[in-house]
Every structure is written in structure tokens, then in C-alpha cells.
Specification:
The protein is α+β, with helices and mostly antiparallel strands. Among the domains are: 92 residues, Rossmann fold (3-Layer(aba) Sandwich), CATH 3.40.50; 56 residues, ATP-grasp fold, A domain (Dna Ligase, domain 1, 2-Layer Sandwich). It is built from 12 helices and 22 strands. The strands form 6 sheets. A 5-stranded parallel β-sheet has the order 3-2-1-4-5. Strands 12-15-18-22-19 form a 5-stranded antiparallel β-sheet. α1 runs parallel beside α10. The longest helix has 18 residues. The chain binds adenosine-5'-diphosphate and magnesium ion (MG). Adenosine-5'-diphosphate binds next to β7, β8 and β17.
């Protein structure tokens, strides 16, 4: 099977690394890829946003299966275009990807089918939204409807803060049309986890639960980032609850979409929060794998991922069972100085090493420099490790981190609750 992975982050390197292991794969490509993916796949120089060019390339190169990493091409309809060309793809059509690209759509669906989610409402009118804030008071959460690269959510502690966010989103149009509609919802205090499943339109197959670390600094301080590390399993949400959650969250949502004539086929990710009483509520859906959650989840997967994704793309997920290692996994993201703000690219990376059993350095923002690699972008590398216990996995990952350096490198020292 000739397989194409779309994307260039740590998630896509981890996908390539895992797919490459399968005897079913005869050729593996990554568009555009990075300095790490070139070790396991052929990099193809087409940007993820050029979905037309990707489809033509896939036809010309007789690609049997394409796996999409990031949300941008999905919300642009890469799956629609590929399917028009008769190409099989893992990733939802854009009508289904609305679950991520429109928070109001997701909220409406969840409320409609009784999925546990914070109480809230959708507004397109600024005055009505402001009235709701004044009526409900603070704390309250203000969410811009569309894709805002993780910057469209304000957890407001005061009414003034909430109103300022409404002004910014709806009047000053900070995110353009993405903020014209907003979701207002109650603030929940709790701990977050990531629940990701495979869906072929009908059958839902869960991956192991994971948890990512969104803030830049230790102890959850500093600005939000794309994710600075991850663990799996997580004490926040035990794996025993997974089956129930699948039935309560994903089943109704996929069925509701189906009843509207929308087939969801691809990865589906629920960002959930677990409150002190153990009640699970869905904060958002993503229509793809998480990054860096993928870098721990795939370390734990024993089964052939190509077989599962091929079945998914044919609507035959029912025939697949996934098997997991009992070991735990942890990963630590190494980011450029200045991230999540402006960063300087082009720093040489030293100390990179090839995969070892239970320890892999996944590349994210790297570009080849001869045999070596230099930095390009905010999140540069993800060091992922397995261990008999979470503690051992964390220790192993940090041992890997110690071997690597580049100018300005920063990372969290408390992934998995440790202190390094
Ligand atoms: N209702 C809520 N209560 C408490 N915190 C929330 C709530 N909604 C969102 N958050 C916080 O804001 C973060 C971002 O919100 P999310 O809905 O995941 O949007 P996005 O990832 O698109 O920015 C969450 O990870 C969580 O920390
Ligand atoms: Mg989120």
C-alpha cells in the first residue's frame, strides 16, 4: 500500500514512524514533512493548505491511503476533494469537520443530543451576548466560533473581562468572521483529558486516553501553547470509563451527524474536563489527532495502524480490534526561545539520536541541514518514552531531553507530575 501523511509536526512524524512499521506499507510519503519524517518517509514539497495540488499529486503517484494530521486542510475540504478524485482518506469531509471549525455547531449538536457539556448558548448578536453575560455574571467562558489557532477562548474571571472579549471578538473583529459568532458557557473547575476515537461513519473505536499540558511553564503557569507535553494513561480519567464515554459522547454525535446526512469518517477528539465529583463534560471537539497526544498514544499502540486506518477508510472498522501495551508513555516538547510568541529560526540542533526501544525523538519544527537539522518554528521536537510506570516513562523522556540542545531551547520540567 502506498500511503501519504499530510502535515509537518510531531504528530505527523509519529504517524509516519508508526505506519512505517507495517508490512502492508510499500511506500510512505509525507507532505510537506520535516527533518525527522525524511528518515522514515519521502518528503513531498506541497503545503497542507493546497488541497487541490495534494489530490493531483496523490492521483499521479497512485496513493492508496492518505492520513491527514492538521485541521486546516480538513476544514478546507481536503477529504471532499480526495473523495471526488476516488482517493481514500482518513479525515472527515468539511461538513463533518465543522465539529472543530465551528464551536457553535458543536455546541448545538451536543445540546441537541444530550451530550454532557457546560451549560451555554450561542450568539450572533453582540447586544444579546452582552445581556447574557450581565444576567449570568462571572466567571464565564467566551469562545469565538471559528478556528483561532488556540487563541479564541477567554476564561473570564470578571464581567468586565467577558464584555471586553465580546467587544474584541464581535465588534473589533480580532479574528474576522471566526469571532462574529460566539459561544458563552459556564466555567467548570476540573482537570482536562483528551479522548480520541476512530470513526468510520458508524463504528467507533477508542484510542487510549491521554492528557496534554497546554501552558508554557511548570505548574500550569504562563501562556497557552499548542501543547508542551503529554502522558498516557492519565490519573484524570481512568481507562475503565472509556467504553461508557464512547457510548455517551461519540455515539450520539456521530448518529446526529448521520441523521443530517453527514458522514463522519476519521479521528474524532473530545477535549473533556472532569470536575471534582468526577462528572465528565465535553469542552470541544477536534476533527483530528492531538499534538502532542499522538506522540504518546502511538508509542502505546501494539496493533498495525495501517490495517486499522485502511479499514476505517473503507467503512469496515467493525472488523478491527486495537491492542495496547500495558506500559505508560510520556512526552516532552522542546520549543524555541520566545515560543508561543515570535521565535528565531535556523538554530542548529545537536544531540539528536535515532529511535531506541521505548525512546523516540519526534521532529516538529525542524528542517534538514545536510545530515543534521535546524529549527523552524515554535515547537521543535517531542521526546517520547515508554516505561513500566508513568514515572519511569517520564524519567526516560527527560533522559532523552538531556541529550539534545539548541540555542534558546525551552521545555517544561513537570510533565507527568515530576520535577526535573
Ligand atoms: N467551560 C469551560 N470551563 C473551564 N475552562 C474552559 C472551558 N472551556 C474552555 N476552557 C479552557 O480553555 C481551553 C481552550 O478551550 P477549548 O474549548 O479547548 O478551545 P481551543 O482549544 O479551540 O482554544 C480549554 O483547554 C480549557 O482549559
Ligand atoms: Mg482545546
Amino acid at each position: 500500500m502506498r500511503v501519504l501523511v499530510v502535515g509537518s509536526g510531531g504528530r505527523e512524524h509519529a504517524l509516519c514512524w508508526k505506519l512505517k512499521e507495517s508490512p502492508l506499507v510499500t511506500a510512505l510519503f509525507c507532505a510537506p514533512g520535516n527533518a525527522g519524517t525524511r528518515d522514515v518517509a519521502f518528503n513531498v514539497d506541497i503545503p497542507v493548505t493546497n488541497v487541490g495540488a495534494l489530490a493531483l499529486w496523490a492521483v499521479e503517484n497512485q496513493i492508496d491511503l492518505t492520513v491527514v494530521g492538521p485541521e486546516d486542510p480538513l476544514s478546507r475540504g481536503i477529504a471532499n476533494v480526495f473523495e471526488e478524485h476516488g482517493l481514500r482518506i482518513v479525515g472527515p469531509v468539511k461538513e463533518a469537520a465543522l465539529l472543530e471549525s465551528s464551536k457553535s455547531f458543536a455546541k448545538e449538536i451536543m445540546l441537541k443530543c444530550g451530550v454532557s457539556t457546560p451549560a451555554g448558548a450561542v450568539f450572533t448578536d453582540h447586544a444579546a451576548a452582552k445581556a447574557y453575560v450581565l444576567e449570568h455574571g462571572a466567571p464565564i467562558v467566551v469562545k469565538a466560533d471559528g478556528l483561532c489557532a488556540g487563541k479564541g477562548v477567554v476564561v473570564a474571571e470578571t464581567v468586565d473581562e467577558a464584555v471586553a472579549a465580546l467587544d474584541e471578538f464581535m465588534l473589533q473583529e480580532r479574528f474576522g468572521s471566526s469571532g462574529a459568532t460566539v459561544v458563552l458557557e459556564e466555567r467548570i473547575v476540573g482537570e482536562e483529558a483528551s479522548v480520541i476515537v476512530l470513526v468510520d461513519g458508524e463504528t467507533i473505536l477508542p484510542l487510549v486516553v491521554s492528557q496534554d499540558y497546554k501552558r508554557l511553564k511548570d505548574n500550569g503557569l504562563g501562556p497557552n501553547t499548542g501543547g508542551m507535553g503529554a502522558i498516557s494513561p492519565t490519573p484524570v480519567l481512568g481507562e475503565k470509563r472509556l467504553e461508557t464515554l464512547v457510548g455517551e459522547i461519540f455515539g450520539p454525535v456521530v448518529a446526529e451527524l448521520r441523521s443530517r446526512g453527514i458522514r463522519y469518517r476519521g479521528f474524532l477528539y473530545a477535549g473533556v474536563i472532569v470536575d471534582r465529583e468526577g462528572v465528565v463534560r465535553v469542552l470541544e471537539f477536534n476533527c483530528r489527532l492531538g499534538d502532542p497526544e499522538t506522540e504518546v498514544i502511538l508509542m502505546r499502540l501494539k496493533s498495525d495502524l495501517v490495517e486499522a486506518l485502511d479499514a476505517l477508510s473503507r467503512g469496515r472498522l467493525k472488523s478491527i480490534e486495537l491492542h495496547w501495551k500495558t506500559e505508560a508513555a510520556a512526552c516532552v516538547v522542546l520549543a524555541s526561545g520566545g515560543y508561543p510568541g515570535e521565535v528565531d529560526d535556523g538554530k542548529m540542533i545537536s544531540g539528536l539520536f535515532p529511535p531506541e526501544p521505548g525512546l523516540v525523538v519526534f521532529h516538529a519544527g525542524t528542517v534538514p541541514e545536510g545530515e543534521l537539522a535546524k529549527t523552524k518554528g515554535g515547537r521543535v521536537l517531542t521526546v517520547s518514552a515508554l516505561g513500566d510506570t508513568l514515572n519511569q516513562a517520564v524519567r526516560r523522556a527527560y533522559e532523552g531531553v538531556q541529550r539534545i540542545s539548541f540555542d534558546g531551547m525551552q521545555y517544561r520540567g513537570d510533565i507527568g507530575g515530576g520535577r526535573w
